[in-house]
Design goal:
The chain is an alpha/beta fold. The chain folds into two domains: 12-40 and 156-292, Rossmann fold (3-Layer(aba) Sandwich); 46-144, Rossmann fold. The chain is built from eleven helices and ten strands. The chain has a six-stranded mixed beta sheet, with helices on both faces. Strands 5-4-3-6 form a four-stranded parallel beta sheet, with helices on both faces. The protein is globular. The model has no long low-confidence stretch (mean pLDDT 95). The structure holds pyridoxal-5'-phosphate.
Length: 300
C-alpha cells in the first residue's frame, strides 16, 4: 500500500466565537479541522481523495494517470505532485486555451503533461477520453469524483471528535461530503455548502456515492453562500478572508473555504445551531488558488 506523506498532522483549531460579534452564542463551540497543513501541494481533501485511486493504479500496474480540471484546479496540482511521489507519470486534461499560471506551473514542474481542450469539447469528457486514451491509462474523474475518492475521504472523519454535533464542509463534486456522510456517527449533522451556483443536482451525485438513503438524511444542504458561482467572489469576501487571518491566523481560499467560513458565521449569527452544538468546519485546503489574486489583496 502506497501512502502519500503528511508534511504536518491535521489538527483542530478552536475559533473563539465571542470574538466574532456573536457573543450571544457562547454555548456553541467552533473548531476548524486544518487539512490545509497536511501537504503544501497535495492540499486538504485532495490528499484523502487521491490516495485509493493512486493505489489502484499502482496495483493494476498502470503506466499513466490522466485526469481533468480547470486551469486553477487544486485537483490538478494535487494529482501532479501525488503522481510524482508515487512514481507514475500523469497527464492533466485542462479546460480552455493553452495558457500558463501558478497552478499549471506547479503541475508541470511536478512532471504532469498538459493537454488543453477548448471549453466546448471539454464538456463531453467521454469523447475526450476516447480520443486521448492510451493502453495502461488510469483515468480519474474531474475533482476525483467517485467511490474510491469518497472512501478515501471517509478517513477525514477520524480527526473529528466523536462529541461533534455538526460537521460543515464546502462541496464541489460532493466526493468529500459523501465520504464524510458515510463515516458520520448517527448523531452528527452534516452540512454541505456548495460553491457552485445552481448546484442542487450535486446532492444526487452525493447520494449515488453514499448509496444509503438513511445516512443521506443526516445531510443538510445550504446553497445560498456561493457568491454568484464557482470561483466568483467580491470585495467583502476578500476583506473577510483578511479579517479571519488577522483574528484567528486562519488562511482561507477564495473558491471553497472562504465561502464555507462565511456560511458558518452566517449560520451562527442566524442562530441556526442549537445551544451546546459542537461545530467542526473542514478546512479542505486549496490555498494555492489564491495565487491568481493580485499580490496586495490578501495579507497572507
Ligand atoms: C476540491 C476541493 C473541495 C471540493 O471537494 P469535493 O470532494 O469535490 O466536493 C473543497 N475544498 C477545497 C479546498 C478543494 O480543493
Amino acid at each position: 500500500m502506497f501512502t502519500l506523506p503528511f508534511d504536518k498532522m491535521p489538527y483542530l483549531q478552536a475559533i473563539p466565537l465571542s470574538n466574532a460579534a456573536v457573543n450571544q452564542n457562547i454555548t456553541l463551540s467552533l473548531s476548524v479541522l486544518r487539512l490545509d497543513v497536511i501537504h503544501n501541494q497535495i492540499s486538504g481533501n485532495k490528499w484523502f481523495k487521491l490516495q485509493l485511486y493512486l493505489n489502484e493504479a499502482l496495483q493494476q500496474k498502470c503506466s499513466r494517470i490522466v485526469t481533468f480540471g480547470g486551469a486553477y484546479s487544486n485537483h490538478i496540482v494535487a494529482t501532479a505532485v501525488a503522481c510524482q511521489l508515487a512514481g507514475i507519470s500523469c497527464m492533466g486534461v485542462i479546460r480552455g486555451d493553452v495558457q500558463t499560471n501558478p497552478t499549471l506551473t506547479i503541475a508541470v514542474a511536478a512532471g504532469m503533461q498538459l493537454q488543453f481542450i477548448d471549453r466546448t469539447h471539454y464538456k463531453n469528457k467521454k469523447i475526450v477520453q476516447q480520443q486521448l486514451q492510451q493502453p495502461g491509462d488510469y483515468w480519474i474523474n474531474e475533482g476525483g469524483y467517485g467511490r474510491l475518492g469518497a472512501e478515501g475521504a471517509m478517513n477525514i472523519h477520524q480527526y473529528i471528535l466523536p462529541s461533534t454535533t455538526h460537521i460543515i464542509a464546502a462541496v464541489g463534486t460532493g466526493t468529500m461530503m459523501a465520504g464524510l456522510i458515510q463515516a458520520a456517527l448517527p448523531h452528527q449533522n452534516m452540512i454541505g455548502i456548495p460553491v457552485l451556483k445552481g448546484a442542487d443536482m450535486i446532492q444526487q451525485d452525493i447520494e449515488y456515492l453514499v448509496n444509503d438513503s438513511k445516512k443521506m438524511k443526516q445531510m443538510t444542504w445550504i446553497s445560498a453562500c456561493h457568491f454568484g458561482g464557482y470561483a466568483k467572489h467580491n470585495a467583502i469576501l476578500l476583506q473577510k478572508m483578511n479579517e479571519w487571518w488577522q483574528l484567528y491566523q486562519l488562511p482561507t481560499d477564495k473558491v471553497y473555504t472562504a465561502k464555507l467560513i462565511w456560511a458558518v458565521f452566517d449560520l451562527v449569527e442566524k442562530k441556526y445551531f442549537p445551544a451546546g452544538s459542537k461545530i467542526v468546519a473542514i478546512h479542505s485546503g486549496g490555498l494555492q488558488g489564491n495565487a491568481s489574486l493580485l499580490p496586495h489583496i490578501l495579507k497572507f
